Amino acid sequence: MTLTKELIRRLPKAELHVHLDGCLRPATLIELARQAGLTPPAEDPEGVAEAMLVSNAANLEEYLERFSYAVSLLQTRAALERVAYEFLLDKADENIQYVEVRYCPVLHTPAMSMEQAFEAPLAGLARGAAETGVRFSVIVTALRTMSPTVSSRLAEMAADYRDEGVVGFDLAGAEQGFPAEEHVKAFRIAQRHGLGCTCHAGEGDGPDSIRQALHVCGVQRLGHGTRLLEDPELENYVAEQRIPIEVCLSSNVHTRVVESVGEHPVRRYFDKGCVVTLNTDGPLMDGVSLTDEYWLAHTECGFSREEIDRMILNAFESAFLPDQEKVAMVARIGEELQGIT
Ligand SMILES: [Zn+2]
Known about the structure:
By secondary structure, this protein is α/β, with parallel strands linked by helices. The longest helix is centred in the middle third of the chain and has 19 residues, at 114-132. An eight-stranded parallel β-sheet has the order 1-2-3-4-5-6-7-8. The termini are close together. The protein has 16 helices and eight strands. The structure holds zinc ion (ZN). Residues 17, 19, 172, 200, 223, 281 line the site of zinc ion (ZN).
C-alpha cells in the first residue's frame, strides 16, 4: 500500500498540542491588522504566510517573538472568537476529530477582562464545533516568565470553566532560567480541581527541566520532551510509565532543538515504547498542518502506515477526557482507520 499525503489528510486524527495564537489564517491576519490600525506584514495571504513563517529563529525565545505580533491582533473579543471559530473549521478540513487547543488568557488583558479572554475563544470553538462536529477541549496556558501568582490565578479560573470545555493546564514560554517548579502551586490547584496537566519541557532546556515537570509539578503529559534522550534513565521512566509525549517535529527544527526532522529523536522514542503523539504547535509560524507533520514522520523518519495509526490512536488515548469517553472514541477511530486504505 502506498501512503500518500492525501490519504493521511483523510485519516481521522486528534491533536493535543496547538496554540490558538499560532493558528491565524493569513487572510484573517491581514483583516485583523487593518482593523487594529496596524500594517500587516504583507499585502496578500501568501506573503503573510511567508512573513510569519519562522524558519530561521536562533532559538526558542526568537521563535516566541513571532507569536507576539499575532497576540497583538487578538485584543478584542470579536477577533478571538473569530480565530477560534476558523481554527475549528480548519481542523475539520483535515479530518481532525478531536483537538485540545491551548491559549493564555492573560495575554489578551487588559484590553478585555480575564473572563472575556476565557470566554471569547470558548464561544468561537463552540460555534465551530456545532458546525463541524469536531470535539474540542481547551488547555489554559500559563507562562514561565510570568509571576507564579498569575499562574495560580489562571489555574483557579481554568477550573471555573470546566463545564465550557476547559480540561487542562499547561506552562509554556522561555524555558531556560524560568524553572517550572516556581509554578508548582498553580499545578497543584489545577490537579485539585481534576484538570489534566502538561508542561512545555525539554525544548529550550535539558532533562532537568523535564524532571521538574514530571516529578515536582506532577504533569501527566510532556510538551515536546525533545531533549529527553540526554538522560536515558529518565527516558526509560517516561516509556515505562507511559507518559505521552506531545512531539512537534517542525517546530523543533525551527527553534533549533534539532537540526532536521530526520534527526529528531521521535523514531527513537517510538521504538523505545514511548507514547508518541504528533502535533503542529503553531501552524502559522511553522507553516505546517497536522497532515504535513504525519507526512514528514513518514517520509523523513520512516514511520509506516501501521505506526502512523498507532500514533493517531495514542493521541486519542492521551486526551484529557474521561476514560469512558476515550474508550468509545478510540474504538470508533480504530474502526475508521481500518476502513481507510
Ligand atoms: Zn507549544
